[in-house]
Write a structure and sequence with these properties.
By secondary structure, the chain is α/β, with parallel strands linked by helices. It has helices at about 1-20, 50-70, 85-100, 155-165, 225-230, and strands at about 45-50, 75-80, 110-120, 120-130, 140-150, 170-180, 190-195, 200, 220. A hairpin with a 2-residue loop joins β3 (about 110-120) and β4 (about 120-130). α2 (about 50-70) packs across α3. The longest helix is centred in the first third of the chain and has 19 residues, at about 1-20. Residues about 1-10 have low confidence and may be disordered. Bound molecules: inosinic acid and magnesium ion. It is found in: Cytoplasm.
């Protein structure tokens, strides 16, 4: 009887949390002047959408959820470069903190893969692997793919299909952001930080032609900047 009551409730709690994480289409964000933004980007940004502190707080909770579900076994965390590096580093710090402060701990190793699918603010049709570790080392492992943002889902679907050829034991995907867009293939990661509107976002390692990775908060790029940094 207790189990009967517990399951629907935890399902409800999960749905409720997912709703809270949606950043609505009419979100106004915050004036740039309210936060510290590098001088060299002040003219390029419209608003702060997710302040760095909120990213960190959400990441801390994702670390807890991931360890709860995947813990007990060795995890190989696979960072999708370059955009995933900040989220990867902070997420792993939180997992390390759990390892240090809980009775149970989970061995953690890291791997890196570099993919490219974007030019200017447009997703291209091709997803290229342009570097990183050999995926064959992941055979038989519990793999946690760490990504910055899922938009169409093409990048993640390509990576998952490459990875499946190497027969890992388990694969989970965590993406800090998921974009709400009609271009989505319908793919959803196992864990996500925030669902965001169909905007081009930069900061916290998300880039526009390699710029804005050195910005702490996640912000909206303005139209002038799209022209200024266009390739
Ligand atoms: P997808 O293949 O369309 O899902 O695109 C995913 C990749 O495109 C991400 O890993 C990012 O590198 C990049 N991307 C998608 N949307 C944005 C954005 O708003 N800002 C920066 N990069 C983005
Ligand atoms: Mg990425």
């Amino acid at each position: 009887m207790a189990t009967y009551h517990q399951n629907p409730r935890s399902r409800f709690t999960k749905c409720f949390i997912a709703l809270l994480l949606q950043i609505p289409d009419d979100e106004k964000g915050y004036e740039l002047d309210l936060f510290c933004v590098p001088k060299h980007y002040e003219e390029d940004l419209d608003r702060v959408i997710i302040p760095h502190g909120l990213i960190m707080d959400r990441t801390e909770r994702l670390a807890r959820d991931i360890v709860r579900d995947m813990g007990g076994h060795h995890i190989v965390a696979l960072c999708v470069l370059k955009g995933g590096y900040k989220f990867f580093a902070d997420l792993l710090d939180y997992i390390k903190a759990l390892n240090q402060n809980c009775d149970k701990s989970v061995p953690l190793t890291v791997d890196f893969i570099r993919l490219k699918s974007y030019c200017n603010d447009q997703s291209t049709n091709s997803v290229k692997v342009i570097g990183g570790d050999e995926l064959s080392t992941l055979t038989g492992k519990n793999v946690l793919i760490v990504e910055d943002i899922v938009e169409t889902g093409r990048t993640m679907e390509t990576l998952l299909s490459l990875l499946s050829e190497c027969n890992p034991k388990m694969v989970k995907v965590v993406s800090l952001l998921v974009k709400r867009t009609p271009r989505s293939s319908g793919y959803r990661p196992d864990y996500m930080g925030f669902e965001v509107p169909d905007w081009f976002l930069v900061g916290y390692a998300l880039d526009y032609n390699e710029y804005f990775r050195d910005l702490s908060h996640i912000c909206i790029l303005n139209e002038k900047a799209k022209v200024k940094y266009k390739v």
